[in-house]
Amino acid sequence: MPTYEATLGGPVLRDRLWFSVDNDDTRDLDQLSVAAPGKDGAVRILVAIADVDGSVPIGSPIDDHARANTTSVYTAAQTFPMLPLELSTDLTSLVADDDRPAMVVDMEILADGEVGTADIYRALVRNKAKLAYHSVGAWLEGKGPLPDRAAAVAGIAEQIRQNDEAAQRLRQRRREHGALDLETLEARPVFTADGTLTDLATDPKDRAKELIEDLMIAANGVTARFLAERRMPSLRRMVRQPERWPRLVELAERHGGRLPAEPDAVALSQFLEARRKADPERFPDLSLTVVKLLGPGEYVVDLPGQEPPGHFGLAVRDYTHSTAPNRRFPDLITQRLLKATLAGRPSPYAPAALGQLATHCTEQEDAANKVERQVRKSAAALLLEPRVGDWFDAIVTGASDKGTWVRTAHPLVEGRLERGQQGLDVGDHVRVRLVHTDVERGFIDFVR
């Protein structure tokens, strides 16, 4: 058993080979992980989550500010953090080579990809290697060398391998349960040193991003079940069954597949996997269509004794957000609920207050997404200004009474279809001509 530190109320785990993987320029590090061999082929994974609550007391001015914002907003021009930078990028960040308090999700990943025994506790940790997605992903895929920061710490390379093995087990098991393995492309503006916009580059998934995604999904599931088993009201992250399922059925038929009349995550997952293998080049377009038809996620309250709302896209019954408390307020709420549970205290939030926070966090997330899209659209409009009159291949990404939107293939930009939208629906491929741009408002207009 680990040695306990009375002031912390948990084990001191600084000597373990913890590492982080995030974007190259990320400073607000929320989680670390470390692996150890388990019994009967299992892998034990520990995920350490930054203890933000310890520096942001509930009801404090900083907490009020974070509750109003509920999320960090990331744009090409500027990042608007949920918390002051002195906290999120330093005092509450799991920076390299410093001791930090954390909440640890300790879980056993069985040989078949199921999560076995699990626990949550507080601990003291130390990040031994701050790593980046692209370089770790390239190494895992055999396309690049072991990153220097990983090579500098004995044992980190094996740690990455063990974490990746556990993540692959989890991913395969989720696929069997019907999780949707989608591949959507996001474009980010590329600027020269003097600030000139030169391109919109895509940032595809890699093995390292999948590794972290799979471990975080598992940790969030453990957290949701941990709170439910102890009858603690909590926030859940859910994606409802798609209201536009008939359109998905129609799209499947168009691609030679078949879906049942009623929403079925396993059937949709199997169809998507078949299409990925049959046409990998156009699979991102199909993924985008499915994302648009699924609809957005939202936060809801889970009360003891109620049936959990579930997450259709992940095909999981129990899911919350807990692994990014520096960036998302729902994760900070969950951390406070965990601390109260561990201490045997009642919830710091009444159920009615949780309900109001769930609605507020969902609305603020939607607003943040709109801001991020607006900045991307302005950058795209600036890039396309010289190309008014050109023709582009595109896919319909939105079709409603409010208008029809398309996304071009090269470059990856979205705009409104001002003429020729009759009969079109999400997922249709069209040829469009650029007729107008407005950089200030982020308008990009096409005609068919």
Describe the 3D structure.
It is a single chain. The chain starts with a strand and ends with a strand. The strands form six sheets. It has a five-stranded mixed β-sheet, sandwiched between helices. Strand 4 (31-37) and strand 5 form a beta hairpin. The protein has helices at 61-69, 85-91, 133-140, 148-151, 156-177, 207-229, 245-254, 265-278, 283-294, 329-343, 351-384; strands at 4-5, 10-11, 18-22, 31-37, 43-50, 73-74, 79-80, 99-109, 115-132, 187-191, 197-202, 234-238, 298-302, 391-400, 403-408, 414-419, 429-438, 443-447. It has three domains: 4-173 and 186-233 and 296-374, no CATH class; 245-294, no CATH class; 388-447, Beta Barrel (OB fold (Dihydrolipoamide Acetyltransferase, E2P)). The chain has 448 residues and is α+β, with helices and mostly antiparallel strands. The model has no long low-confidence stretch (mean pLDDT 92). Helix 5 crosses helix 6 (207-229). The chain contains eleven helices and 18 strands.
